[in-house]
Specification:
The protein folds into two domains: 5-157 and 344-356, Rossmann fold; 159-337, Dihydrodipicolinate Reductase, domain 2, CATH 3.30.360.10. The strands form three sheets. It has a six-stranded parallel beta sheet with strand order 3-2-1-4-5-6, with helices on both faces. It has a six-stranded mixed beta sheet with strand order 10-7-11-14-13-12. The chain has a two-stranded antiparallel ribbon with strand order 8-9. The protein has helices at residues 15-24, 46-49, 62-65, 75-79, 93-105, 138-145, 164-169, 210-221, 267-276, 280-284, 305-308, 340-356; strands at 5-10, 30-37, 69-71, 84-87, 110-112, 152-154, 175-184, 224-226, 231-233, 239-246, 253-261, 294-297, 317-324, 330-336. α6 links the parallel β5 and β6 (152-154). By secondary structure, the chain is of the alpha/beta class.
């Protein structure tokens, strides 16, 4: 590629926005040329806007420090400066739905970390290794929006990354019922330990809206495009029930899952299916794609956040403790990095896929 695509990050001052900024530093295809946030940050340099609230371990990339922060509501002006945008804005769902559509209608593709459009029927919700073909629904979305180039694509909730990839790898064994309990890091709420004293020496057994997302979003990912309805029709199996707890971990969502199968696979067959599973990002060698999407760990005490959350630079999934269950067929533990694979990194990989498929191009 001779020239990188020009990228804007909406909501650039929040935790996910900061993760976008660090992951996009020195990206081979994309260059951050514009950062936008709420009106209170507008006019400041990016370094000034995040002063005292920079949450990443890495320093602010030099190329972004002095960029002036734009008001995210300046849709037309921002759109004129970029080829596409990543969205991590903090607004009400109605406001997010409107502003992301406003950007799309300026013929600017939007790749969103937000949940507001995840259930819009013609908006693809993509995990690139699982459902890359769902991008085909974009043609119907463009018909609805009246655009030729603009559209919205979203990534799913961070918590499902720790178990949905395993269930996808096991699709040929026909999983029918799943219980998934997730133990979710505080960064999933945009917080660090300094921001969240309530989590110290504590487990909080409620995360608003999380259980519904954990049960429903995999169904859309496993769904199909219906040309008649011009929409993605969610799958109906397996049936998932979940509980979601916030725990005193900074990064990493862990899941304890139980699965029934229509077929009766052996442990060896299940492990082989995990380790052999790969997708379009691996075959295309997309810049952010992990070489190995899923690893299986044989030690009884793995996966662990402290050892495994950064597998494949945070873009890989770790599975372990696969064993028979007295009520269900099998049970296992999964782990994923919630702000890398589960948030900004997953969205960047989605954008790389959409570029490779020809949906994101230079203006």
């Amino acid at each position: 590629m001779s020239e990188k695509l020009k990228v804007g990050v909406l909501g650039a001052t929040g935790m996910v926005g900061q993760r976008y900024i660090t992951l996009l530093a020195n990206h081979p295809w994309f260059e951050v040329v514009l950062v936008a946030a709420s009106p209170r940050s507008a006019g400041k340099t990016y370094e000034q806007a995040v002063a005292g609230r920079w949450k990443m371990d890495e320093p602010i990339p030099t190329a972004v420090k002095d960029l002036q922060v734009w008001d995210v509501n300046q849709v037309e002006k921002i759109a004129s400066q970029v080829d596409f945008v990543f969205s991590a804005v903090s607004m009400s769902k109605d406001q997010i739905r409107k502003i992301e559509e406003d950007y799309a209608k300026t013929e600017t593709p939007v790749v969103s970390n937000n949940s507001a459009h995840r259930w819009t029927p013609d908006v693809p919700m993509i995990v690139p290794e699982i459902n890359p073909d769902h991008s085909e629904v974009i043609k119907y979305q463009r018909e609805r929006l009246g655009t030729k180039r603009g559209f919205i694509a979203v990534k799913p909730n961070c918590s499902i990354q720790s178990y949905a990839p395993a269930l996808t790898a096991w699709k040929k064994f026909e999983p029918t019922q799943v219980i998934a309990t997730t133990y979710q890091a505080i960064s999933g709420a945009g917080k660090t330990f300094q921001d969240a004293p309530e989590i110290l020496n504590n487990v909080i057994p409620f995360i608003s809206g999380e259980e519904e997302k954990s049960e429903k979003e995999p169904m859309k990912i496993w769904g199909r495009i219906d040309p008649q309805q011009k929409a993605i029709i969610p799958a109906t199996t397996p049936v998932i029930t979940s509980q979601c707890l916030r725990v005193a971990v900074l990064y990493g969502h862990t899941a304890a899952a139980f699965v029934n199968f229509k077929q009766k696979p052996t442990k060896e067959e299940l492990i082989a299916a995990l380790e052999d599973y790969s997708g379009v990002p691996q075959s295309l060698k997309l810049p952010s794609a992990p070489k190995q999407f899923i690893q299986y760990l044989t030690a009884d005490d793995r996966p662990q956040v402290s050892h495994d959350v950064n597998f494949e630079h945070g873009m890989g999934i770790s599975i372990g403790r696969l064993r028979p269950d007295k009520i269900f067929d099998w049970k296992f533990v999964g782990l994923s990095h919630n702000t890398v694979r589960g948030a900004a990194g997953g969205a960047i990989l989605c954008a790389e896929l959409l570029k490779a498929q020809g949906y994101i191009t230079a203006k």
